[in-house]
Amino acid sequence: MRIARFSIDGNVAFGAVEGEKQDELVLDIIKGIPFADFELSGTKVPVSKVRLLPPVLPNKVVAFGRNYADHAKEMGNEVPDAPFAFFKPATSVVGPGDEIQYPSFSQDVHHEAELAVVIGRLCREVPRERVKDVIFGYTCANDITARDVQKREKQWARAKGFDTSCPLGPWVETELDPHDLTIQLTVNGGQRQLGRTSEMIHSIEDLIVNISEAMTLLPGDVILTGTPAGVGPLHVGDEVAVTIEGIGTLTNKVVKRG
Ligand code: MG
């Protein structure tokens, strides 16, 4: 099931996305919240009549670095022996169609297409065999990075945590085998990144075991699983799109921060 979060007439709701053709998609509005038991209301509204929002509002976004060998290599980095994580704050999250605001303190903002895992239940110290039970579903993410700032500053809080640096969406797919999906990114229609989730160095199971060893994960928390090779600069006016097989396409436009 594809679950979207949206606003209509000033109200925010979740809905199950029905249909295949982009211009014919319909939302069946969900009664309750999708992390607990919920029912479909049967009240339907066309996707074209609503504003899609970030599919979840995470308490935290935990992002893993250098998890595809080709990307580590293009950055001149060694592949890490163990997963390593950093945070993107809740205030970095924006939704499908939202603007990415180019920050004033960077001259080299990059795109990074990533598979995002959405956590479905409160959990800690998750054993490998239980990882599937704590996952709600999957969505597309763009780990927008001020590359010059990342190189200059030891901690990545500013480089990877600025406002609008974490587009998520367009919805959460709850029934998906995430282990071998095509992940691609285009800028103004031209392909920049192409990889498969099977190329991850540390698996989704590894990543969730690793982070949940340290901290409690909450429903709606998001885990970014790393980016394949092909990262590169974005410029004001660009339209950047992340497409993951079986999920959909997350599109955002880059604007100057006003
Ligand atoms: Mg990344």
Automatic annotation (TrEMBL):
<feature type="domain" description="Fumarylacetoacetase-like C-terminal">
    <location>
        <begin position="60"/>
        <end position="255"/>
    </location>
</feature>
<keyword id="KW-0479">Metal-binding</keyword>
<protein>
    <submittedName>
        <fullName>Fumarylacetoacetate hydrolase family protein</fullName>
    </submittedName>
</protein>
<dbReference type="InterPro" id="IPR018833">
    <property type="entry name" value="Rv2993c-like_N"/>
</dbReference>
<dbReference type="InterPro" id="IPR036663">
    <property type="entry name" value="Fumarylacetoacetase_C_sf"/>
</dbReference>
<feature type="domain" description="Rv2993c-like N-terminal">
    <location>
        <begin position="1"/>
        <end position="55"/>
    </location>
</feature>
<keyword id="KW-0378">Hydrolase</keyword>
<dbReference type="Pfam" id="PF01557">
    <property type="entry name" value="FAA_hydrolase"/>
</dbReference>
<dbReference type="Pfam" id="PF10370">
    <property type="entry name" value="Rv2993c-like_N"/>
</dbReference>
<dbReference type="GO" id="GO:0016787">
    <property type="term" value="F:hydrolase activity"/>
</dbReference>
<dbReference type="InterPro" id="IPR011234">
    <property type="entry name" value="Fumarylacetoacetase-like_C"/>
</dbReference>
